Amino acid sequence: MAISFVGPRYRVTIPKQLREEVQLKVGDRISFFRKGDEIIMVKVPKDPLKVMAGSLKVKNAREKLREMKLEDLRAEEDRGL
Questions:
Q1: N or C, fewer C-beta in 10 Å, the chain?
Q2: Which of 33, 38, 30, 34 is nearest to 14 (CA)?
Q3: If one looks up domain 1-44 in CATH, what number appears?
């Protein structure tokens, strides 16, 4: 386990071993998430859309969008719109 300290300007140095393991370089983007009392830091891909490409099946996405549209139309009808 690598440990770092929060500096006076709330800056944290990422330990060298971790930087090398995830190939973190100057200028890379980092995203932070809170999970309870933990802070999770995630390296953001340079082209997030490219990384996500293919993660959804087009057929399923289209079907889901149709379902959502029908739900919205039904809700509008119920409200008398």
A1: N
A2: 30
A3: 2.10.260.10
